[in-house]
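Anyone have tokens for NAD(P)-binding protein? Sequence:
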Amino acid sequence: MAQYWRHGCSPRILFVLLIVQWIANLFVSHSFVWLLRKLTPDQMIVLTGATGGLGSQVLKYLLTLVPPSDITVSLHNPAGLDPSVASTGITVRKGDYAVPTSLDAAFAGADKLLLVSYPSVAHELRVKHHVNAIEAAKRAGVKHVYYTSLAFGYGTKPESCAAVMQAHLDTEAYLRKSGLKYTIIREGLYNESYPLYFGFFDPAKDTDVYVPGDGPIAWASRTDLGEGTARLLALPPSDTRFDNTTLLLSGPASNLLTLAQLSSLISTILGREITLHIISRDEYVKKHLDESGKIARLTEDYLGKWATTFEAMGRGETGIVDPTLQELLGRPLKTMEESLREALNASRDKHLDLYATAQY
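Reply: yep, here.
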């Protein structure tokens, strides 16, 4: 303040300047962050599926947005949580979708619940587990349930011809009628899950890819989706923009790619021609059933159901671009090319692990 005194500032002006400087220092200090947290009511956020591909990313980013003491994870196997994550100060509880009483204890005291969809293609089992979680949330007095759905259905419409989407649609309908405040998040199709849609592509050996249809997909990276979901969870209760809504978190227009375009991109990255073949649904089932030895658990039932995703793609269900994810993140989204280069460079000599890339 000496420079102001030398320039003839009056004591009154000098006092005002001192106050302004003190306030400025307060805003950049740890004390202000502590004070802000004290003035903002704590919200307990319970995460399910926090060791999975999406859930682990949500937890990673949520830890940068709220205090660890506000986070509880509900896991069917708490021992599976990375010790470095468990040591951050979050609360870890045992909760199993198949055991409703365990969910009562896991969700106790929660203000918000992230219900990560159960990873299965078994429709009835999946819906039953989701209903168990929703009913437990009601009993526990949870104020707001966030559900991770999937980006089929023309954006946010309650319809789809994809078999994998049917359990999501049933869960969405049940949640809307539950009386709970909800946010249904239709998570974009992962960049990282491209092998599922690209004929179970094995970069270590495949040169020909066989699928029963094609259509545009607004691909989004799992890391971006995890961060976007975390930012939704961290919003204060006063921000009601997403209350009782269904929203789509998609990739940007630059990530809107068909499988044919994906084939060209992969060919460029690998430096060898990858040829896409469009075949009938029956041929698709037979071909991949004959090759089921290279990928465990590819059954006729699974392949028949999975073939319906290509019909949905062809109808345009997965080709909707929505700005919400980029708006939540406030930065450009990861490109499909960037994700492909990372995945293909890491797996040139490795065979496909179907379940490491799965998204249901």
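Residues 108 and 158 are 31 Å apart (CA to CA).
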